[in-house]
Amino acid sequence: MPIIKSAKKRVRTSKRNRALNLEYISKIKSTLRDLGREKDTKKRAKLLDKAFSAIDKAVKKKIIHKNKAARMKSKLQKSLDQKKKTKKK
Fold it and tell me: How do the residues of the chain divide into helix, strand and coil, expressed in percent and rounded to 5?
């Protein structure tokens, strides 16, 4: 346990920041989970926009790195395109 006053304050702020960061991360994970379960391509496209938005907000708050976000978005878009191709065949 911290003894110095500033260290105690830092513990409090880091707890608060962790709680906020976990909210953003859980939002991303839940949208990705919903996206994986959805079969309808139109609904998938809407969920994809929602996921992109959640990812971009996390990047803006510096919760995840911008390159990780780019990888995630690219992977999601690829999976949506793959599903569309298999549906047309």
Answer: 85, 0, 15
Compute CA distances 4 → 1, 12, 35, whole Å: 9, 13, 47
Tell me the pLDDT of the chain averaged across its residues.
92
Provide the 10 A C-beta neighbour count for residue 54.
Answer: 20
- Looking at residue 19, which CATH number applies to its domain? 1.20.58.110
Name the amino acid, one letter, at 11: V
Give the residue numbers spanning the domain of 61. 5-88
Number of structural domains in the chain? 1
Average pLDDT (67-82) is 93
> Residues 6 or more apart from 41 whose CB is under 8 A from it?
80, 83, 84, 87
Q: Can you give the pTM of this predicted structure?
A: 0.84
